[in-house]
Amino acid sequence: MSKYRAAYKCPLCGSIFCTGDAMEIPYDELPVLLGKVIRNQKFAGNPYLYQAPMHIPHKCGDGSTGLAQFAGFIISY
Prior knowledge:
77 residues; alpha+beta
């Protein structure tokens, strides 16, 4: 079983970055977890669903600030 982290992509600068702690997740369960992230946005506050925000602020390398979007889960080595 591998460890994964929530990944975000800033549309302003194109950076992909991770947040939060790495979690051990079976590869076959990743699509289910992605579905839970989407459902969590519809039913905010449900403690049984994974709590990954859909958007977070991002400080771009050139000093700009973008609004990064949840992109999925990336393997953590």
